[in-house]
Design goal:
The protein has 507 residues and is mainly α. Helix content is 74%, strand content 2%.
Length: 507
């Protein structure tokens, strides 16, 4: 088992990529078979991911040399604590594929089903590969794979508005990709290496130059666009709100987290806290931008009437929470950043579950009613109690109401801000939470406490294949809060390692 699990980071990436390529072939005679193929591939990917995570927590990080070529000359796949996010990606991928079986046939023709599932597998493969590679150039390759499949998924319905949203996403995403590519080129110019561990070693052996700082700035800009941090967030509302809801759940739950993973990799694995480059000026600036991001996202969400647009702006606000948490670091006293880092990392996991729940619930409501504005959805909770009950649990969770999942991460980030003496940031977190609570109360009030009118009175509950993923995710919103020690036991070693502390560190 131990020897087999060593290969799993490679196997899970290859499984998704080969599965995506084979989807149109295996479903050539029966288009609907593409669902069962994608479901099988995603389950296989999830199994490999479980094995890799098991080995990480029992043996240690996995360093895999492709073709047996030793790094930095060969390509390295490295599965560490940051890579545990692949477990979240693959598990959510399975649930979203199950949800898509009924849902996506409502939005696209049967002829497009193989294309849809092929793109979903390609997106999952790109995200998994991005999270486990130990090589900067392959990081860029996987970034492009997931980005291109994301653009195509947004536009898959072929409608004019979705095509325009996808084009805007593509144009801004291209700028992001160029920034990352130039960052890699500049860093190669300084170190002569593409292997992350080797780059980190060589950066510690030399004095930082202007090129080193320019590369860092390009990485932060590029990945901030992917994460949709203010003021680089303008592509997100249209792309997330207009795409099919299963795609919205993938984009909002997972894809924007890739930008966060990129920032974590560059800052804490390549440049390294306490190394030759003091990047705390950068993290301090990111923290202030994160504070603005929280308020801007929450403010615009409050005044939306479109339920998916509310969730899209809410994602922007919550990215601010995550970035603020991972920005609370000290160059000379890394232990001071522990609480904020734990909060930021756990919010990556919790927000993915919560936001996927919200978008899948919105998709189920739109699927049954055809409406997406709150003013048209009055009383729908009385006709779709399971879907709207799950939506309410997720709404309470994203507002940070205990004992749901959203509470524990925001609690840690607030504690981290206070520990750091950033009382203004702590105040922004609380104001942002009040805004979030306000606009989710507006949703709950509309769907449960208003009387339904025609045609809402005629609708019934969503199909079982859509309800199962929704109920599992909503239950996850409760379990991750009530049994918070479960995610904390996974996250704490990751937070300590990134700060250069022992994995067993406790404050």
């Amino acid at each position: 088992m131990v020897e087999f699990s060593r290969h799993c980071p490679v196997l899970m990436t290859v499984t998704f990529l080969i599965g995506a390529v084979l989807t149109p072939i295996v479903s050539r005679s029966r288009k609907k078979f593409s669902f069962w193929w994608a479901f099988f591939v995603s389950l296989l990917g999830l199994f490999f991911c479980f094995c890799a995570v098991w080995r990480l927590y029992t043996v240690g990080p996995i360093s895999y040399w492709l073709g047996g070529w030793e790094p930095p000359y060969g390509i390295e796949v490295y599965f560490d604590y940051i890579s545990t996010i692949t477990l979240l990606m693959t598990a959510l991928g399975v649930l979203i594929i199950v949800y898509s079986n009924k849902y996506i046939r409502h939005d696209i023709s049967e002829e497009k089903l193989p294309t849809y599932y092929s793109l979903v597998l390609l997106l999952l493969g790109g995200m998994v590969g991005f999270s486990v590679t130990g090589d900067m150039f392959n990081l860029y390759v996987f970034l492009e794979i997931l980005s291109l499949s994301g653009y195509a998924l947004v536009a898959i319905t072929g409608e004019k508005l979705t095509a325009m949203a996808s084009f805007k996403y593509l144009v801004i995403g291209a700028v992001s990709s160029l920034c990352v590519l130039f960052g890699i080129a500049f860093l190669y110019n300084v170190t002569g290496s593409l292997n992350m561990a080797d780059i980190a070693f060589r950066l510690q052996q030399t004095q930082p130059t202007t090129t080193t700082y320019v590369a860092l700035a390009l990485f932060i800009i590029g990945f901030s666009v992917k994460a949709a941090m203010f003021p680089l967030h303008i592509w997100l509302p249209d792309a997330h709100a207009l795409a099919p809801s299963s795609v919205s759940a993938l984009l909002s739950g997972l894809v924007i987290k890739v930008g966060i993973v990129g920032i974590l990799r560059v800052l804490y694995c390549v440049y390294k806290l306490g190394g030759s480059v003091d990047f705390t000026v950068v993290t301090n600036f990111m923290g202030w931008l994160a504070a603005i991001t929280i308020l801007v996202g929450a403010f615009f969400a409050f005044f939306q009437d479109d339920i998916k647009m509310i969730f899209a702006y809410s994602s922007i606000s919550n990215i601010g929470y995550i970035i603020m948490g991972i920005s609370l670091v000290s160059f000379s006293q890394p232990e001071r950043g522990y609480l904020g880092m734990v909060g930021g990392l756990i919010h990556i996991f919790n927000h993915a579950i919560i936001k996927s729940t919200l978008f899948l619930c919105a998709g189920a409501i739109i699927y049954k009613t055809g409406f997406r504005k709150l003013s048209d959805l009055r009383g729908v909770g009385k006709k779709m109690p399971i879907t709207c009950g799950a939506l309410t649990i997720a709404a309470l969770s994203i507002a940070g109401i205990p004992p749901t999942a959203g509470f524990i991460c925001k609690w840690y980030i607030v504690l981290g801000a206070i520990e750091f003496g950033r009382l203004i940031w702590a105040g922004v977190l609380l104001v942002g939470a009040l805004f979030v609570f306000g606009y989710y109360i507006k949703i709950v009030n509309a769907i449960f406490f208003r009387e339904p009118v025609e045609p809402i009175t005629q609708v019934d509950e969503a199909p079982l294949s859509m309800l199962i993923p929704i109920v599992i995710l909503a239950t996850g919103c409760l379990i991750m809060g009530v049994f918070a020690y479960i995610p904390l036991n996974v996250i704490k070693p990751a937070a300590a390692t990134m700060l250069g502390l022992p994995p067993t560190y406790l404050p």
